[in-house]
Amino acid sequence: MINPNIDLHSHSTISDGLLTPAELVTYASQKQVQVLALTDHDDIAGLKEARLMSKKFDIIFINGVEISVTWRKRTIHIVGLNFDESNSFLINGLKKIRKGREDRAKKIAHSLGMAGIFNSLDGAKKYAKHSTIGRIHFAQFLVSNGHAKDIKQVFKKFLTPGKPGYVNHEWASLENAVSWINGAGGDAVIAHPGRYDLGKKLYPVLLSDFKNFGGTGIEVMSGSQDPSQSKYFAKLANQFDLFASCGSDFHGPGISHRSIGFVKDLPDECKPIWTKWPNIINNVH
Ligand code: AMP
Ligand code: MN
Ligand code: MN
Ligand code: MN
Asked: Is the CB of 16 under 6 A from ligand 1?
């Protein structure tokens, strides 16, 4: 299915992206993106700036967020799309997760300290600036201090299960995340399902729980998963009557596998999630 140039998953400096919301939209426009969602981790503070800039470039802007969730002791990301950003349940839910991020950051710094790497909290905060702190900011600090040669290496040596700087963390529940998005009138979408490595038995359980809680979509195509997985997720999407979404998961020029607007063509059998929003994207071809 050849779609309009539509990218429903991207990040800015509000979370762990390299470009400010305005720069991201400018960049998207240079890449001929027609429909864009900004989906920062657990934060919607960039939406206003991105929407204003989108108007200037004639890009159709969709409100987005990527919520960190713990499901059966695993971290799962749920993208929320096309919601009312002034909804207080959503705003408060996200605030709680960001507070959890601050607490986790202290534990990450402690764990790195046990491995002989000191002052990483201050170091990571320099990269986070005013945005919510995440593992990527620790990664940038570790690379700058020569503990790894690049971001890819750093996640291999640190910050992942079993390695220094990894801490278990309890994020939002799947049920809460989906209900905040739905409560704000949006659509909940399972982000990059291919990343979770759940096996043939657990994927249907995740989709079934998600559907029961009110989830409506799944990223069949994602810059964060192998394109060869799209057939499998297209089949699962149809089996659970979920809409298909797509997005690059762009974090910045040079650091993402796929550039913005380059992950858009869904398998033919899919029902694109934007067919739920005809009044918004009616005129895009
Ligand atoms: P956090 O939500 O703070 O745990 O960080 C998750 C983010 O870290 C992801 O959204 C990616 O941006 C980044 N990340 C995780 N694993 C890797 C990896 N192996 N290589 C590069 N970036 C990664
Ligand atoms: Mn990220
Ligand atoms: Mn993610
Ligand atoms: Mn993402």
From this structure: yes
